[in-house]
Design brief:
heterodimer; A: 279 residues; mainly alpha; MetI-like fold; B: 346 residues; eight-stranded mixed sheet
């Protein structure tokens, strides 16, 4: 790194790769849509926009659904549900998981073992199944689906964070901080957790896409958003009923695809950027 | 000598033992060490890797793992440190007693600037000081340890510092709260020889300006020679010789010290092969009976295998050797026999 810094630089930095850019652009597009769709939406997402089950046309680029609502409008509105849910779920899972995992790694002993066994138990279930069970017991609704997803997701971060903490806490600067009189809280937050966030951040970026997918899955089987919410999963479910009107499922399905891919590319790019080993 | 100075002693270690419980057995890393450090004095603690020198000093600060059993007495300014609650100990660390480590890169937090780390060190023990005052003090401290352009350097990260500068930054952090005692655990081992001398000069100037007592842990007698006032040589968890630095080099009274001194290459002597003490220090669990050094000692007699000698006055030193007073009577060529045997074997 030091050597390359002294060389004249003409090309873009190594980490600025096409996938990273593509991912960032796609995600940026959806964020802009989520923020501004109310201003320029061609139709009302909940009101009838014309004849039902129209194929794509100039008036309805993605056609209309079984009730005559514009599929494109509903797809664009759908991001207003998917992104906030993903954001809420990932942030909650990261905070809860990192904190519990950090404590498990730092304190160890009985508390650490107890936390990690809880993690093992949760991770031993297939995530979709567990999320379905929890969501079903809480009742339908996006909030409940979100809670269910946090419950399924935090153990991943707990395990990740514990591994990081176990490694970082043995580093010499931690011992030096102890020798300097630092207390346990300061050690954990200033000297250990501050060095652990890189893999968590990368994982979280990738998980955004996964959470969007899981949220759509729960809605697909009726455990997430309730009609008439223009949520992608429930829209795909509508489309599945009307098998020969392919456009109904295409809009939300394609939206899910771009978001998941976008976050994956972004996460990949972030890893290349933040992990010194790949430089 | 090493037992005098009690009146003005800053740190006084008596019969310190440190044992580790491993698989039902207790392994003694430190077996009854006595040390004294006075204000404004540099004590060199010399020993091979694994001799227990670092563990002994870490134990003084309560920085040993929980499996360790520490016994004996460590008095710092009259306060007993052995058995002191961790919360009280923490107040001493970094404020009254500063510590610096071998590898300054891994001892610094890589994600905080040097300035932020010094500020943290100050505010940890003096919460009344504002952030602004503390960062002014950080610049002052970097200046004190001879870091050039301190006001620019405080905003930099450890990776932007060279090895010698990092160690100076570590020293600045260690003395941030005007400690009375500084424990330096091999502070120059990871540095180039030229930089070593600069860092040692910084330590000495701090001793002179702040009246610090310094414990310099090292395995390098070259570091000891010009930079300490008194030396304690540690072998296998015990002090085998303690003396003023001049006396130690002039007239070593323990065979181990003699071995160490003869293994320093000399410029005015032509030698095919450098002298080395034959064998290795005994592992913790399998220490020989009697004097721990006797299997490697070229002076060893029958009594050495049965009786562990106590530290006693011999010449200008304190030495733990049965023959401390009469090492000269054993011919030199015999004393070197070990090295010759080693050469023949190879």
């Amino acid at each position: 790194m030091a050597a390359s810094a002294t060389l004249p630089r003409r090309k873009a930095p190594d980490w600025l790769t096409t996938p990273l850019l593509a991912g960032a652009l796609v995600i940026l597009f959806w964020i802009v849509v989520a923020a501004t769709i109310n201003l320029w939406a061609p139709y009302d997402p909940l009101a009838l926009a014309g004849r039902r089950l129209q194929p794509p046309s100039m008036a309805h680029w993605l056609g209309t659904d079984a009730l005559g609502r514009d599929v494109l409008t509903r797809t664009l509105y759908g991001v207003q549900y998917s992104l906030p849910v993903a954001l809420g779920v990932v942030i909650s899972a990261v905070v809860i998981g990192s904190l519990l995992g950090g404590i498990a790694g730092f304190v160890g002993g009985f508390i650490g073992a107890a936390i990690m066994r809880l993690v093992d138990i949760t991770l031993s279930f297939p995530p979709v199944l567990l999320a379905m069970a929890v969501a079903a017991s809480l009742g339908p609704g996006l909030t409940n689906a979100g809670i269910a997803m946090v419950l399924v997701w935090w153990p991943v971060y707990a395990r990740l964070m514990r591994g990081q903490v176990l490694e970082v806490r043995e580093r010499e600067h931690v011992e030096a901080a102890i020798a300097g009189g630092a207390g346990r809280t300061r050690l954990l937050f200033t000297h250990i957790l501050s060095l652990c966030w890189t893999p968590v951040l990368i994982n979280a970026t990738m998980d955004f896409g996964q959470v969007v997918l899981l949220a759509a899955s729960l809605s697909f089987i009726g455990l997430g958003a309730t009609p008439p919410t223009p949520e992608w999963g429930s829209m795909v479910a509508d489309g599945a009923i009307h098998f020969y009107q392919w456009w109904i499922a295409f809009g939300p399905g394609f939206a899910i695809l771009t978001v998941v891919l976008g976050f994956n590319f972004l996460g990949d790019g972030l890893r290349d950027m933040l992990d010194p080993r790949t430089h | 000598m090493i037992l005098k100075h009690q009146d003005k002693s800053l740190l006084s270690v008596r019969n310190l033992t440190v044992g580790f419980h491993v698989g039902g057995v207790t392994l003694d890393a430190v077996r009854g060490i006595d040390l004294d450090v006075a204000r404004g004095e540099v004590l060199g603690v010399v020993g091979e890797s694994g001799s227990g020198k670092s563990v002994a000093m870490l134990a003084c600060l309560g920085l040993v793992p929980r499996t360790a059993r520490v016994a004996g007495s460590v008095r710092f300014q009259g306060q007993e440190l052995v058995g002191m609650p961790q919360s009280d100990m923490r107040k001493l660390r970094g404020s009254r007693i500063g510590m610096i480590f071998q590898d300054p890169l891994s001892s610094l937090n890589p994600v905080l600037t040097i300035g932020a780390q010094i500020v943290e060190a100050i505010r940890l023990h003096q919460p009344g000081i504002s952030r602004k005052q503390a960062s002014d003090r950080a610049v002052e401290l970097l200046d004190l340890v001879a870091v050039p352009e301190p006001d620019r350097r405080v905003t930099q990260y450890p990776h932007e510092f060279s090895g010698g500068m990092r160690q100076r930054a570590m020293i600045a952090m260690a003395v941030a709260n005007d400690p009375d005692l500084l424990i330096a655990d091999e502070p120059t081992t990871a540095l180039d020889v030229t930089v070593q001398a600069q860092v040692l000069d910084v330590l000495k100037s701090l001793r002179d300006r702040l009246g610090l007592g310094i414990v310099l842990i090292t395995h390098d007698l070259g570091v000891v020679a010009g930079n300490v006032d008194r030396v304690a040589v540690i072998y296998s968890g015990r002090v085998v010789e303690a003396a003023e630095v001049g006396a130690l080099f002039r007239d070593p009274r323990h065979p181990y010290t003699r071995g160490l001194l003869s293994s320093i290459p000399k410029l005015d002597e032509k030698r095919e092969r450098l002298f080395s003490i034959e064998g290795t220090p005994p592992p913790l669990g399998r220490r020989p009976p009697g004097c721990a050094y006797h299997p490697r000692c070229t002076y060893a007699r029958g009594v050495c295998a049965t009786d562990d000698p106590a530290l006693r006055v011999a010449g200008e030193s304190l030495s733990a050797c049965h023959f401390a007073d009469c090492l000269e009577e054993i011919p030199v060529h015999q004393a070197l026999a070990g090295a010759e045997i080693a050469e023949v074997r190879q």
